[in-house]
C-alpha cells in the first residue's frame, strides 16, 4: 500500500487533482455549518459583481449570495456524482462478473442487454427517464446510474474473462470452492484496479450529466446545483459574466481534478503500463 | 581464425535492478566455421551477451566496458548507422519465439524479400526468386504457396525455418541463435537443430547458440561457455567441458539433466484407484448461431492408476494430454466415457455431488507465476482448501506449517505474498496447497517445464518423495521424455488426442513399439553423444 501511495503521490497532476478534490469535499461538507441560512436566502441587490461588500463571488439574478450557492452546489454535484457511480459500479460489477465468469449463454444474454443500453443515445434516455420519474435527486442518481453501468460491466467482464482461466482460479475450483466464493475472493480482488480507475473517471461524467440535467430544468427543484445556477442565469450571461462563469468553472475544476485522480490511480495501480 | 572476440565485456543494468551488472568481465571467442554454445540458467546473462553483439540491448541497459571485436572492428564503438548496416549483412539473429518475431499481417514472401531488398538493390521479382531458393534450402516443401502464406498459417517448426531463411538471406558470417528451439516440440526441435548444423557446415559460417539445455550443447557445440550470474565460469572445447568439468556448478548442471533412462522399478501390481475408460472430449468452435468445426481433443482414452504409482502422459503440444488431465480432475466436463475413482464414476457428476470428492484429486499447475493468487498470502493460499471443508483455521495453519516444512519451505514464509518467491519456491507452495487436502491422486501438469534445470531436478525429487511418503497415485503430464523417464513408473504416449502406446517406462524407452514413440525417443537432445 505504501508503494502504491508513493507512486500515486509522485505524480504532480495526481497530487494536485487529489488536493483540489479534497478541498471541494471539505467545502461541500462544511457548507451548512458556514452558511446556515442556506443558498436560497436573498441577501442584497441582484447582479452585484464579485468583490462587493460581503459578496466575494457577487450576487445572482435574484440577489442571492453566489458564494453560498456555489458551496451548496458542490453538495449536490458530489452527492449525485458519487452515489450514481456507486450504484452503476455495483450493477456493472455484478453483471460483468456473471457474464465474464460463466461465459456462454449467460454472457450472450447479459451482453445483449448491455449493448441495448449502449446503442440508445444516453442523454436522451436520461432526460426521458428523469422526466418520467419526476425530477428529483433520486431520479437523477437512478437515471445516471442506468446510463453508465454498461461501461463498468464491459471492463469487469473483460477482466473476468482473462482471469477466470488463470491457474489460481482453476486451483480454487479443484479445491472444491463454490463459484460465488471464487468470484468474490479470488477473481474480484485481482480485477479491482481497472474498476477503480473507470469509477473515478465516471464520477466526473456523472457530475457533468447532473449539471446538464439541472441546466435543462430537470434537476431537483428544491436544491441549488451548479447546473441549475447556469440555467437560471443564462439570460444575464452578457451583463453579469460571473453568474454563469463561476458555476461553470466549478464544474470544470471538479471534473478535471477527478480526471487527474483517475489518471494517477491508473498509473499507480498499473505501474507496468504507465511507461 | 577468430571472427568474434569478446574481451572483458561488462553490461550495466539500470539503477533499481536486483544487481548492477547483468554481464561482468565476460571474454569469449567465436572462430570462423564453428558453433559456440553459451549455456546457463535464467538470469545468467547469456542472452544479454548475445544481444550486446547485435547492439540490441534493451533500453536502460548499456555496455559499460570491454570490447566486442568483429573481424577486428570494435562493435561497441560503431555508430548506430554502421551497426544497423551490419545487422543482417554480417551478423544475423534468430529468436526463441518465431511467432513474435514475424509480422502477422505481412505474407512470408514479402517479409523475406523486404529483408533482402533493404540491403541489396535488386528487383522484387529477383528477390522473390532468391527467397524461394532460400526457403527450399531450409527444407520447406511447397515453396510457392508458402511465399503467399501468413505466419499464423504455419506450424512452429515452419516459422522457425522461415526465420532462419531470413537470417541467412544476406549470407552473414555470424548467426546468433537465442534459444531457437525452446518453444518447439521435441521432434521439431531435433529437426531445427539438425538444420542449423547442416547450414553451418555448408556455408562454413559461425554460429553462437544460446541455450539452457546441456543435451543441445552435446549435440551441437564445438566449444562451450558456461555462464552464471553474469560471469563465464568455464569455457573450452565441448568434449572437455562435458567430460571433465572443472567447476562445481558445471558438474551440478550436467548432473541435473535427466538422463532419459528409467531407474524406477515397474509399479506394484495392485487394484487401480483410478480407472478411466473411453474418455472423449470435443471442443466446438463458433458462437451462438454458427456451428463451427469440431475438434476431438481427447479421443477414447483409457488408463488405470494405482496408489504409489506415477503414470506419465507424454506428448507434443496439441496431443490432448493437458485436456485429458483437466477432464480427470473435472475442470472440464468430458463428453463421453467414465472416470472411476474408487469405483464411483465422477465423469458426469453434478457440481454438488462432486464437491465433497474434489479434495481427493488435486493438481500442481504448470505456470508458477499464474498458479498462485497474487493478492493472497502464502498462508491463506494453502489453508483455504481445508477451510472450505470446515477445518478450524488455527488447526489448518498448524498443519500448513508442517506441510511447508515437508515441501522444503520455511513456515515463517506464511505471511508473505507470492511475488516474493522464485519460480521453484512457488511450485513448492502450489504443491503444499494440493497436499493440504490429503489427496489420494495428484495430477502434475508440466510442473517443471517453466523451471531452470537445477531447480527442475529438485522439484522432481520432491514430487517423488512426496508420492512415496503419502502413497499418492500420480498422473504426470510432460512434453519432456527425459523428465518422464526420471519420475514415471509407466508412460502413456499420446498424439492427436489418441493413445499411441502405454507401458512400463523402461520398456517404452528401450523398445518402443510404435514409430512415433521411436521418433520421440530419438529426438531427445544429447542422446547420441552419451
Characterise this structure:
The complex is a heterodimer of chains A (275) and B (530). With 275 residues, chain A is mostly helical. Chain A has helices at 2-9, 12-34, 66-102, 104-119, 122-133, 137-163, 167-175, 179-215, 226-233, 242-269. The mean pLDDT of chain A is 91. In chain B, α14 (378-388) packs parallel to α16 (423-435) and α16 (423-435) runs parallel beside α17 (453-470). Chain B is globular, with a radius of gyration of 25 Å. Among the domains of chain B are: 2-90 and 174-256, P-loop containing nucleotide triphosphate hydrolases (Rossmann fold), CATH 3.40.50; 99-171, no CATH class. Chain B is built from 20 helices and 20 strands. Chain A binds chain B through residues 105, 108, 166-168, 170-178, 181, 186, 189-190, and chain B through 287-288, 326, 329, 331, 355-356, 358-359, 361-363, 365-367, 370-375, 381, 384-385, 388-389, 430, 433, 437.
Amino acid at each position: 500500500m505504501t508503494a502504491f501511495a508513493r507512486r500515486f503521490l509522485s505524480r504532480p497532476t495526481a497530487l494536485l487533482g487529489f488536493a483540489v478534490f479534497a478541498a471541494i469535499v471539505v467545502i461541500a461538507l462544511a457548507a451548512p455549518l458556514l452558511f446556515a441560512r442556506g443558498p436560497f436566502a436573498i441577501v442584497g441587490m441582484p447582479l452585484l459583481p464579485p468583490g462587493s461588500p460581503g459578496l466575494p463571488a457577487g450576487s445572482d439574478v435574484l440577489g442571492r449570495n453566489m458564494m453560498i450557492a456555489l458551496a451548496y452546489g458542490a453538495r449536490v454535484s458530489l452527492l449525485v456524482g458519487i452515489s450514481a457511480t456507486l450504484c452503476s459500479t455495483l450493477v456493472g460489477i455484478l453483471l460483468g462478473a456473471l457474464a465474464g465468469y460463466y461465459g456462454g449463454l449467460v454472457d450472450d444474454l447479459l451482453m445483449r442487454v448491455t449493448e441495448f443500453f449502449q446503442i440508445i443515445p444516453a442523454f436522451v434516455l436520461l432526460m426521458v427517464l428523469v422526466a418520467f420519474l419526476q425530477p428529483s435527486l433520486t431520479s437523477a442518481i437512478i437515471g445516471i446510474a442506468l446510463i453508465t453501468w454498461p461501461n463498468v460491466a464491459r471492463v469487469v467482464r473483460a477482466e473476468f474473462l482473462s482471469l477466470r482461466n488463470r491457474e489460481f482460479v482453476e486451483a480454487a475450483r479443484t479445491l472444491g470452492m463454490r463459484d460465488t466464493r471464487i468470484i468474490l475472493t479470488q477473481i474480484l480482488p485481482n480485477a479491482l484496479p481497472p474498476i477503480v480507475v473507470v469509477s473515478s473517471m465516471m464520477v466526473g461524467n456523472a457530475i457533468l450529466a447532473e449539471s446538464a440535467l439541472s441546466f435543462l430544468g430537470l434537476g431537483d427543484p428544491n436544491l441549488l446545483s451548479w447546473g441549475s445556477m447556469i440555467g437560471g442565469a443564462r439570460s444575464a450571461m452578457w451583463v453579469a459574466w460571473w453568474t454563469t462563469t463561476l458555476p461553470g468553472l466549478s464544474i470544470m475544476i471538479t471534473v478535471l481534478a477527478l480526471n487527474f485522480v483517475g489518471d494517477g490511480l491508473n498509473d499507480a495501480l498499473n505501474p507496468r503500463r504507465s511507461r | 581464425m577468430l571472427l568474434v572476440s569478446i574481451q572483458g565485456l561488462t553490461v550495466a543494468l539500470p539503477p533499481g535492478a536486483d544487481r548492477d551488472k547483468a554481464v561482468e568481465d565476460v571474454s569469449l571467442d567465436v572462430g570462423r566455421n564453428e558453433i559456440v554454445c553459451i549455456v546457463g540458467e535464467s538470469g545468467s546473462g547469456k542472452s544479454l551477451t548475445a544481444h550486446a553483439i547485435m547492439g540490441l540491448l534493451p533500453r536502460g541497459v548499456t555496455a559499460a566496458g570491454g570490447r566486442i571485436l568483429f573481424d577486428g572492428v570494435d562493435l561497441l564503438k560503431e555508430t548506430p548507422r554502421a551497426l544497423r548496416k551490419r545487422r543482417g549483412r554480417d551478423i544475423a539473429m534468430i529468436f526463441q519465439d518465431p511467432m513474435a518475431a514475424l509480422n502477422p499481417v505481412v505474407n512470408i514472401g514479402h517479409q523475406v524479400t523486404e529483408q533482402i531488398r533493404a540491403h541489396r538493390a535488386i528487383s522484387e521479382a529477383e528477390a522473390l526468386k532468391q527467397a524461394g531458393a532460400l526457403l527450399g534450402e531450409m527444407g520447406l516443401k511447397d515453396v510457392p504457396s508458402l511465399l503467399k502464406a501468413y505466419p499464423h498459417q504455419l506450424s512452429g517448426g515452419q516459422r522457425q525455418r522461415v526465420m532462419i531463411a531470413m537470417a541467412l538471406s544476406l549470407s552473414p558470417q555470424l548467426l546468433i541463435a537465442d534459444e531457437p528451439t525452446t518453444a518447439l516440440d521435441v521432434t521439431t526441435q531435433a529437426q531445427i537443430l539438425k538444420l542449423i548444423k547442416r547450414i553451418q557446415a555448408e556455408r562454413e559460417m559461425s554460429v553462437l547458440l544460446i541455450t539452457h539445455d546441456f543435451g543441445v550443447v552435446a549435440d551441437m557445440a564445438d566449444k562451450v561457455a558456461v555462464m552464471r550470474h553474469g560471469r563465464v565460469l568455464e569455457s573450452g572445447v565441448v568434449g572437455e567441458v562435458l567430460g571433465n568439468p572443472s567447476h562445481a556448478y558445471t558438474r551440478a548442471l550436467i548432473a541435473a539433466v535427466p538422463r532419459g533412462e528409467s531407474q524406477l522399478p515397474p509399479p506394484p501390481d495392485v487394484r487401480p484407484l483410478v480407472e478411466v475408460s473411453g474418455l472423449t472430449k470435443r471442443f466446438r468452435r463458433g458462437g451462438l448461431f454458427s456451428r463451427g468445426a469440431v475438434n476431438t481433443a481427447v479421443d477414447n482414452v483409457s488408463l488405470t492408476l494405482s496408489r504409489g504409482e506415477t503414470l506419465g502422459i507424454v506428448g507434443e503440444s496439441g496431443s490432448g494430454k493437458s485436456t485429458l488431465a483437466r477432464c480427470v480432475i473435472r475442470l472440464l466436463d468430458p463428453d463421453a466415457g467414465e472416470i472411476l475413482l474408487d469405483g464411483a464414476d465422477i465423469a458426469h457428476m453434478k457440481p454438488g455431488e462432486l464437491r465433497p470428492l474434489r479434495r481427493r484429486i488435486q493438481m500442481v499447475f504448470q505456470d508458477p507465476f499464474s498458479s498462485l493468487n497474487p493478492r493472497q498470502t502464502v498462508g491463506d493460499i494453502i489453508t483455504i482448501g481445508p477451510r472450505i471443508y470446515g477445518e478450524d483455521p488455527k488447526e489448518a495453519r498448524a498443519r500448513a506449517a508442517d506441510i511447508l516444512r515437508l515441501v522444503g519451505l520455511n513456515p515463517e514464509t506464511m505471511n508473505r505474498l507470492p511475488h516474493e518467491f522464485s519460480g521453484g519456491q512457488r511450485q513448492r507452495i502450489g504443491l503444499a496447497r494440493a497436499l493440504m487436502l490429503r489427496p489420494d491422486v495428484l495430477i502434475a501438469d508440466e510442473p517443471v517445464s517453466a523451471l531452470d534445470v537445477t531447480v527442475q531436478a529438485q522439484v522432481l525429487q520432491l514430487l517423488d518423495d512426496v508420492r512415496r511418503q503419502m502413497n499418492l497415485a500420480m498422473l504426470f503430464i510432460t512434453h519432456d521424455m527425459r523428465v518422464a523417464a526420471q519420475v514415471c513408473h509407466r508412460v502413456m504416449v499420446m498424439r492427436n488426442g489418441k493413445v499411441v502406446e502405454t507401458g512400463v517406462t523402461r520398456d517404452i524407452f528401450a523398445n518402443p513399439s510404435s514409430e512415433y514413440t521411436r521418433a520421440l525417443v530419438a529426438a531427445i537432445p544429447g542422446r547420441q553423444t552419451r
